Amino acid sequence: MPEIVPGVSLELAQQRADLLRKVHYRLHLNIPETVSAPVQGRNAVSFDLLQVPQALQLDFQGSSEQITALRINGQDADIRYEAEHLVVPGSRLRAGRNEMVIDFIAGRSALNRKPEFLYTLFVPDRARTVFPLFDQPDIKARWQLSLEVPAHWTALSISPRAGSQVEGARKSVSFEASDRVSSYLFSFVAGEFEVVSKEVNGREIRLLHREPDAAKVTRNLNDIFRLHGDAIAWLEEYTGIPLPFKKFDIALIPAHPYGGMEHVGAIQYRAESLWLEEAPSDTELLNRASLIAHETAHMWFGNLVTMRWFNDVWTKEVFANFMAAKIVNPEFPDIDHDLKFLARHYPRAYAIDRTSGANAIRQPLANLNQAGQLYGSIIYNKAPIMLRQLEARLGEAGFRQGVRTYLSRFAHGNATWPELLEIFDPDASKGLKPWSKVWVNGTGRPVFTLRSTAKGLVVSQTDPAQRARVWPQQFSYLSVDGEEASASNIGIGGSDLTLSLSNVSTSAVLLNANGYGYGVFPAAETLLSAWDVLSDVNRGSLLIQLYESMLENGRPYPAHYLSALLSVIERERNQVLLELATAQLRHIFWNLLAEPIRESVAPPVEATLWAVIAGIDAPALRRLLFFVVADISLTEQSLQRIEDIWNQDERSEDVPLSERDLSAIAMTLSIKRPETSGRYLESHMRRIQNPDERRRLEFLAPSVSEDRLVRDAFFASLASVENRSTESWVLDALHNLHHPLRVSSSEKYVLPALELLEDIQATGDIFFPAGWTQATLRNHYSASVIAIVQDFLAQRPAFNPQLRLKILQALDPALRAHRLRQLSEP
Question: Which of 158, 531, 742, 801 is most buried (CB neighbours < 10 A)?
C-alpha cells in the first residue's frame, strides 16, 4: 500500500492506474447565490477494480468535517480521513464494479466564486480541493454533472446540457455523461452570462460572456467564432482526426488568471484577451488568433492524448504552441511569422535559461502537489524552439506522420515523451535519444564564438556549465559588406565549423541570422549600421543578440545601447521589431541606468518618442509608443501631455485608448504625481462603465496611494488567501508597489513576500508563485535586496526545490542590474 502523504504521490498514482478501470463520476453541487455560503455536494464514484488492494485512497484536500456521509457498495461506512485522503479499507471493496457515494462540503479555492458568477480551474491537481476523487491525469473518467443554481444563472460544462428546471428562485441543470476526460480537464462555469450561439462549419458553438459594451461585442464576435472554426478545420485536416469530443463551447471570464484553459469542449478565456478595442494592432490580432488556435489545438494535444504524469505536461503545451503557429500563418500573410516566432519565444526562454535557477523542459515530479511549478517560460517558449529544431531534423512530412501515428495510437489515453520519441525514431538511426537528453532533459544554452583563423572564420560551440554538452542545431549566418548581404545555412554539432567566407571580418558577420539557433551568439554593435540591408528576421535576431551580450558582459554599454535603440525606433515601422526594441529600452531605462544617468537621458528619450508618435499615422503604432512614453516619462512637460491624452482633451494626440488603458494611465500618473494621486482614480472611477473593471480598480487603488501606511496595510492584507483570490489583480498591485520609483520604500515587502511563497503555491493557481516572485523582484537592484533573497535561501536549505528555482529565476535581473549599474562608461 502506498504511504498516505499529502498530495498525490507518484507511487499512489501508479498503484491506482494499475488497479482502476471505467471510472465514472456523478457529481452534484448546490451553489448558493451568496458567495460566502457553503456549497453542498455529492459525488457518486463508480469504478472497476482489477484486484482488491489493502486500502484505496481518494484525494481530498480539505478536512474530515467536510465529508459528511459515506456509502460504499450500498452500505454506510465510517469515514477515515488522513493526510488529504479519504481512505477506504479493502474489506469494503470487491473485485469488479464498486460504487462510493460521498456527501461533502466543497472546498472553495478552485471554484473561483465571484458576486455574479463562478468558474472552476482544476489544473493540475486542484479538483481535489473541491471534492473527493482520483485526481491524476492517467485515470480518465466519464463525468455526469448536475447543478442547483440561482434561477437567473446559466451554466456550461464539458458535455452537452441534458435539461434544466426552474422552481421559484432556483434552477436545476443537468448535463450528459461526458467523454473520457482527465480530472484537470473537467470544469463548469455558472452565473450571470450572456449566451450567444452560432453555427460554424456545421457545428454549433455557444459563447458565454459578461461584456457590457455592445459595440465591442458586435465588433469582435464574428471573428472569435470564425477563428475557432478555422482552427478546428485546420487541425482536423493536419491530424486526420475529426474533433474528438461531443461539443465545442467557450466562456469569456473577466480577469481569468490564464490567457485560456483548454477544458474539453468548454474552453475558458481571459475575456480581455478576446475582446479587442477599436483599431487593434497586427500583434493584438495575431495574439488573439494564436491564443484561440493554441486552446483549440489542445483538444487533440493534451485532451485526446494526455500525458501519463505531469512531468510531461510540457508536451501538450509545446504541441499546442507549435500547432497554433502553423494555424495562424495563413490568416496573417503580411506578417513575418519567423520574426514573430523569434520575438515571442527567444527573449522569454533566455530570461530563464540565463539564470542559476534554469530548469529543464522535462522535469522530475514526485508529487502532483508540486506540478504547478513545472509551468513557465521554458515549457511555453524554449520547448517550441526545440520542437522547431526537431521538425527540421525529421523533415515536415516525417514530423507530421509521427504526430498522426502518436494521436491515433494513444487516442483517448495517455502517453509519455519517450513513447513519442520511439515513434519518431523507432530504430534509433536519427539519434533522437542523445539529442533529447541535451535539449529536453538539460538546462541552459550554449555559447557560440566566432574567430578568425588561417583557414577563415570559425564558429565554435561551448557549454558554459563545462559539462561538454553539445546542442545539435541548424541556423544561418549572414555577411554584410557595404550595401550587400548574403546568407548561408549551417548545422553545428560538436565540431568547429569554418564558414565559407573570405576577406570578411568577424564584425561583419551575423550568426543565427534566420533566428533558428539557440544560444548566446556574438554580435557587433556596428552591424546596426547595416540595418537597411537586413531582413526583418535579421534585425530581430541582431537586437536579441546585442541585448543578451549586454546582459552577459556589459557590451554594448547600456546607455550606448539605449541610444542605438532610439535610433532603431525612429526609423523602424515593423510593429514586432518596435515591440522588441521598446521592451529592451524600457528595461534599460528603469533597471540598468543609475539614477543620475536616467534623469539626464529622460528628456531626450521622451522628446524622441513624442516626435515618433507625431510622425506615425497607424493608430496601433501610436498606441504602442504612447504606452512606452507613458511608462518612462519623468519630466513635468511630458507627464502633462500624458494627462491631456488621458483626459481625452480634444486638442491632444489621436491615441486610441480603452477603458482598461485609461485605468493603467490613471495608476501611472498617481505614482508619478503622488501629491495629487487621489484625483486620477476618483475621476476615472466616475467614468468606468464595466462593473468588473470598476471592482478591479477599487482593489488596486491602495497600491498606488501616496500614503505609505495605506500601501503597507494593503500589502499586509495579501497574507490572507481571500485577498489573493483574483490573482491577476494581485500581480498588477505588486507591480504598483514595486514600481521603479518606489523600490526604496518597497524593499521592506521583499522578505515577507518570500515568506508567503509556500502558502501562495499551496493555495494559488499554477502561474501565481512565479508571477508573485517576479513582480516582487523585477525592478529591484540594490545589494540589500539581493542579500535579503540570498539569506532567505541560505537559511532554508530544505526549501521547496521548485520554488527555490522560481526565486533564483526572479532574482537574476536584480543581480545583473546591480552589476551593470556599477559599470563605468567605456
Answer: 158
